[in-house]
Amino acid sequence: MPSPSTTSITIADAPSIARDYMELWTTTNPTLRSSLATKLLSEHTTQFAAEDNLVFHGAEAIEATITKVNTENIQQAGFDFVFDSAVANQNSVQIEWTILNGEGARVGAGRDFLLMAADGTIDSFYMFKR
């Protein structure tokens, strides 16, 4: 696994990374999702999801997981995952988001920590409910 970048991500980079990351999870367009997965993920990316202790390795497995979550929660259940904020710190970005039901009521929220690789892809990311 490549080591995370020693180059700091600027505060100006965080919104762009967060926008692409959120779009990766929320788009219902499979072509756009694959394009964003290619841009953000690599064969070395690892996803860690808290509470369930789920771990996924590599772009292919992670994209399949994202597609499943999108289909079940956005396309079928009608939830809306809304970006709240992004903050950069060294080689990482913290992203906070909220889940709204079909009536617009808040039904959940999360915080994801992305550790970026030197090539601009996500080295690993950690997902937490908040």
UniProtKB/TrEMBL annotation:
InterPro entries, per the entry: NTF2-like_dom_sf
Recorded superkingdom: Bacteria
Protein's name in the database: Nuclear transport factor 2 family protein
